[in-house]
Task: structure prediction
Amino acid sequence: MGEQRRLTLAVTGAGGTRMARYVLSALVRDERVGHVDLLVSEAGRTLIAHEFGGSRTDDPVERLLGERHDKVAAYDPEDLTAPMVSGSYPTWGMVVVPCALGVVGRIAHGQANTLLERAADVCLKERRELVLCVRETPFNLIHLRNMAQVTEAGAVVYPMIPTYYNVPRTVEEMFEEFTARLMGFIGLGQTDYYEWAGETPAHRDRSH
Result:
């Protein structure tokens, strides 16, 4: 096995934190991932409590995974002494899911007032990967300009939009499909089930 990837997963206060559970679960299962730094904003903790139950002060790792995991380290969103504030901290990059458009705006304008925003800023300055899974809709002109600006700075805007050609039968399948595509996009492909091969994937065997 080659070198295991270290990366950051961030969760903000946009609805859809359940997707973060699917993505984090996929990351910890993947043998190519050695470590995940989990950053959950204050608003993200509130949304997790709303969508999963419990309190906003609960351990975000336990709330998302159902248990602690030695591959995941969670940090206080206000802790500007955490390792990812420095470009010398070795990491592949950062995925933000879900990503609120207010966060996109602050990243676009270099406002690194929280650990999450600073970690994103470091990814841009170090030319590392930064994937922003925006969820809100519709977009106003400010949103569109901010997304264009972060794209020009080196980030990728990857909206939480499901596909339909695979004919999902449940909400869970839509979450699984998005997670599989996102993992493939960041170089951690899981399965070819959602790859178009001239046929409707709903008619293919999912066992592989």
In short: The longest strand covers residues 33-40. The first helix runs from residue 17 to 29. The two ends are 21 Å apart (CA to CA). The beta strands are 5-11, 33-40, 72-75, 93-99, 129-134, 156-157.
